[in-house]
UniProtKB/TrEMBL annotation:
Annotated signal sequence range: none
UniProt entry tagged with the keyword Hydrolase: yes
Protein name as it appears in the record: Aminopeptidase P family protein
Organism of provenance: Mogibacterium timidum
UniProt keyword terms in alphabetical order: Aminopeptidase, Hydrolase, Protease
Amino acid sequence: MLDNSKLERIVAKMKEQDMPQMIISDPVSIFYLLGKWIIPGERMLALYVNVNGDNHLVINKLFPQTEDLGVPLTYYDDIEDAVEILAKFVEKDKKVGVDKNWPARFLLRLQELGAGSAFTNGSVIVDKVRQIKDAGEYKTMKESALKIDQVMDELIPWVVKGLTEKELNAKCVELCKKVGFQGLSFDPITAYGKGGADPHHITDDSKGKFGDSVVLDIGGMWNNYASDITRTVFIGEISDRQREIYNIVLEANKRGIAAAKPGNKMSDVDKAARDYITEKGFGEYFTHRTGHSIGLEDHEVGDVSLANDEIIQPGQCFSVEPGIYLYDEGIGVRIEDILYITEDGCDVLNEYPKEEPIVVPVEK
């Protein structure tokens, strides 16, 4: 059913940006507004939104809707021109916002039909509205975070069971199903030693050995919302060098979290974590951004990087996940938590321990 509060926020931003009408085609954004998953494949699916309230969902007959979605439906079949049907609703003399991922074959046809005086990226508006989670979304994301904490707790003992990275990956999938996740938010990263020290590593048949660091980056989908967590653990023992790297990454993680509050910039969070790692002499080995936004998808618009100077607002959810990767030494450490921005700071959604390195005893 159409969520009027979310639609009102989108319409308000459309008015602010002088965008009188918009075509939303991303199934995730349509779910965000209608609460219904419709996966159209190669067929056109389009939610037309007009600031005057003239909204329509144009959908193929292969996807009949049995409940009231709160918006008028217009069906087409495979022998009809779907874009021509959509064009009948579009005000020809006004600008149209279109989804950034809308296939060119649909957009070009709409332009050919003269539907709209100009075309612009409408996803900017929807993405920004989706960034700010309401109370219900916050509650679900907290639940999702606690569930992935549980998976992490059950997965860690398996790093000393002699499994390959692929087998450990499969074990993670099994545990996610066990705790009730409906699916994964991304393919797990389960990497031993040099695998964890290579940010571009592809899970393979390597096995862990005594003294390895193990990077575990995992996430699941709970009631349509993603979770994400990374912990680095150690097989059997931890060397002084590994402990040094771990403590630097931990402090960088904490400093990033401390900077995550309303009024600061997203780049401030990255800078807080990155500057500390650089100060300690490992800046060149922190080779990725500090985080990403998260919600209905694991990676949403709004990254935590030096390039993003947008002001942090209450309701945002994003990760803080600094890392150091010393491939030649076979040491990779990353620590990741998901944050929800409150009125005066943030709530760290993940509660799994990180203060002390976890050394998993090797079974005799």
